[in-house]
Amino acid sequence: MVLRKARLYHFTIFILPALLLIAIFVLYPTFRTIFLSFIDETGKLSLNNYREVFSSRDIVNPRGFKQGFPFGALIHNLMWIGIHLPLTTFLGLILAVLLRKVKGGAIIKSVIFLGMVMPMIVGGIMIRFMFEENVGVVNMVLGFFGIQGKTWTAYPETALLSLIFGSVWLWTGFSMILYAAGLETIPRSYYEAAQLDGATPSKMFFNITIPLLKPITVVVVTMTLLWELKVFDIVYVATMGGPGGASNVLALQMYMYGFREWDFGKAAVVAVLITLSTLVAAIPMISSAGDDAL
After folding, report:
1. Where are the alpha helices (DSSP H) in the chain?
2. Which of 24-28, 221-225, 289-293 has the lowest mean pLDDT?
3. pTM for the full model?
């Protein structure tokens, strides 16, 4: 009995401060934001904020499907996921495999990972200059093929795509490093046995490497999804959501509602939407962690 009380005492002493911090800085802001999302302009509880946000063209613009950009912040985030996620995941895996046995591969990986180390604000500024008409490296490359350059972030039809493709090099280093670490956990005896059985490199890649890297892939996909759902800084410094909302995203729209229109109710609605989306995106990683624990 005395031992149990001592354990409970020590448990309380060590855990309580952490629980208090979580309650103050995580739980309270979360529930306060949810509550705020139901408060309308008159101070009453209602669904007006949700009705106005989800019917707004800033979030989903039906005309965009006929006329082109902008499609709305929610659709832009989905486009970001549809393009950025497979590219960064695939490139990270390929680079990790190719650089595994290359002399000086560690140095090359470090250079590629620089994009992930630098602040995303700096990355956004670099992306803006990359696609500039006169000084951009993209136009320099296109010039070799006789393609007329322009400021790609200044046109509605290319602004969002420029940010998406420009951010690929920033995030690829993340997936590459995780895959490189995962490759080191695969026993070489598997590959040696496969070679004795006459397996080709492509068969070993698809039948050994990819299946054994599944836990790493779950982490890479989940973390990339979380970043894509709440991407803000790159868009803020590169285009500010323009031109005409053509590169707007949910996090930036939340900022616009809250600190440009001073409508914190609508901002809270977008915050709830982003939070629910990130929770759904995190389910695969949580499930994978639970399976590993078992």
Report:
1. 2-22, 28-36, 48-54, 64-67, 73-98, 105-117, 120-130, 137-144, 156-183, 188-196, 201-204, 210-212, 214-229, 233-238, 250-259, 264-293
2. 289-293
3. 0.88
